[in-house]
Design brief:
single chain; mainly alpha; 13 helices
Length: about 230
């Protein structure tokens, strides 16, 4: 009863989330290890904490929901670096548009091919199609495809977390150094979570990633609609 009284409060979810996140940031600064990703580790730590102590998810979201409410305003704030780097974006407009379209195409093709390889049913395949767009758009697209909303949300979260976590490692391995290339890949593949990592890298990366989120989402919706029209789904 004492545990339930403590967890079933608005402060519990907020303090748990912020405590684990900033704790991971402290560890990363102390040990100077890139693999200590605050976003990824804190997310899994929260899952383990709740499941091991049998704390209802509803108790956690009572407070953590306030943090989630800031997602909209934060997304709007992303327009600031976009505005500051507008001349650079116009200068490289064809490369940017081509990169985003290629990224969306790769996202679709990879889901279709892997679904066929692992013999996933049509519902699971449709549920994974929106994995690289922002959550609100992904949910709407999932519903229009008659997919499972929960699976879509999980795939979006995992894609964003992994994209933000392994981005620097992949750039180092593949020797990707251009800021526009970094921003394009993070925004197109890992949506908002990837964009937060892009902003850490630099303003140009953040601006391009912010643009990629919107264009990739629109392209994904249009592509999925065309597939529906031609009878693919």
């Amino acid at each position: 009863m004492m545990t339930e009284a403590l967890t079933n409060t608005h402060l519990f979810g907020i303090l748990l989330t912020l405590g684990l996140y900033f704790g991971c940031i402290w560890l990363r600064k102390r040990h100077k290890k890139n693999w200590i990703n605050p976003l990824l580790i804190s997310a899994f730590a929260i899952i383990i904490f709740l499941t091991q102590l049998n704390i209802p998810y509803e108790h956690y979201t009572k407070g953590a929901g306030f943090i989630h409410a800031f997602l909209g305003p934060v997304t709007v704030v992303l327009a600031l670096p976009l505005y500051r780097q507008r001349k650079l974006l116009v200068q490289h407009k064809y490369s940017i548009i081509g990169g985003i379209i290629s990224g969306v195409a790769a996202s679709f093709i990879s889901v279709i091919i892997l679904s066929r390889i692992f013999h996933l049913n049509d519902v699971l395949e449709r549920s994974l199609i929106p994995h690289s767009v922002t959550t609100p758009i992904g949910i709407a697209l999932s519903n229009s495809l008659n997919a499972v909303e929960g699976i879509t949300v999980i795939s979006i979260i995992i894609t964003g977390l992994l994209g933000a976590a392994i981005a620097k490692i992949l750039y180092k391995i593949l020797k990707i150094t251009h800021p526009i290339a970094k921003g394009l890949t993070l925004g197109t593949a890992a949506h908002v979570l990837g964009t937060t990592k892009a902003i850490e890298m630099g303003e140009t990366e953040g601006a391009v990633s912010s643009l990629a989120i919107g264009v990739a989402a629109i392209t994904t919706v249009i592509s999925a609609t065309i597939l529906q029209i031609v009878g693919w789904y």
